[in-house]
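Why does residue order matter? Because the sequence determines the fold. Keep that principle in mind as you read this record.
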Amino acid sequence: MGDAAKSDATYADLCRVADHRLAQIVDGELIVQPRPTIEHQHVTSVLGGELGHPFGRGRGGPGGWWILDEPELHLGRDVVVPDLAGWRRARVPELPSGPFLTIAPDWVCEVLSPSTAGLDRVRKGAVYAREQVDHAWLLDPAAHTLEVLRRNGAHWLIVGTHAGGEVVRAEPFDAIELELAALWLTPAPEPILAEAPLE
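Structure:
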């Protein structure tokens, strides 16, 4: 999960972390991690482009969203950095300027790695649910999977699981098709087909 440097951490503690590290504060704990891998960066870059063009700019697409890469979010006492986040323009007509946002997004995407999966799924997931983020995606570039989650009160419901090279429509961006194979730096493995039983 990274280096747990201090409990009851402050934003000043976070600001002292070297630029080549990613720092967040969750439940008062300063969590310091290395920057994302190339596989991780590839997923976020491609997905940001796939969603940002039709939803962010709206040219030839549905529009209606602000979509940002790695925004720093100050949500209560927590400071978290999702890999991608989106705000509906109907709710947030203009994004404020500055180094961070205090407005919870409507959608977040976390790209999982063995060292961050627990943090992303459990601790940051609880922060997002508490702050009433409606949708979350969990992408695993090693397993080539996408989990689509919808908030139900203080909990998350899995509303879709997808893998490999599927072409999907995933809420809240189900107005377009998304080709999962484009997200993976390595080719998606072929599905394993069950053999027919011997008679």
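The chain has one domain: 36-183.
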